[in-house]
# Entry
Amino acid sequence: MKKTKVDDLKRIEIKEFKKKKKRDVIIILDNLRSLNNVGSVFRTCDAFLIKKIYLVGITGSPPNKDIERTALGATKSIEWEQVSCISKIEKKLKKDNWKIALIEQTDKSTDLKDFFPKTKEKYAFVFGNEVFGVSEESLKCADIAIEIPQFGTKHSFNVTVSMGIVLWDHFYKTTKAHKGMVA
# Structure
């Protein structure tokens, strides 16, 4: 076994990436405080061909050196928009048949293993503040809350780890990747 060299990865240019069909997934960052987390979100969204990121409230936005440090250029490939609050986009998302799915521990959360998105459904996944979780405003907008099962003492993942888990789960459940199909 040997590591693959960067030149052998066959990366596409940003211009080509922007033309590629994106997954019907939007990410909403609800008042994230860490710029490094925001950058990691951009990078992960690039990897999964995510349609758009909404940066809500205090969530930092590009251009910013701390975001770029972890985004590694993904701020140029992923469409994004800064909005003051989720209610500014809720009506449009719902009118366009997007389901707003919080990633949060609530009294009505669905366990991630029991969440089975249909291939044709469009999801806007909301990830909340690193300390306080999603806002009350986001709770009111949500169609569903999804919880990632955890077994230790902390009962919380870093927001970017949660996003990676949720996006991989969604990708796996809505494609035939596990049967050899390439996205």
Q: What stands out?
A: The beta strands are 23-30, 50-56, 80-83, 98-103, 110-111, 122-128, 144-147. The longest strand covers residues 23-30.
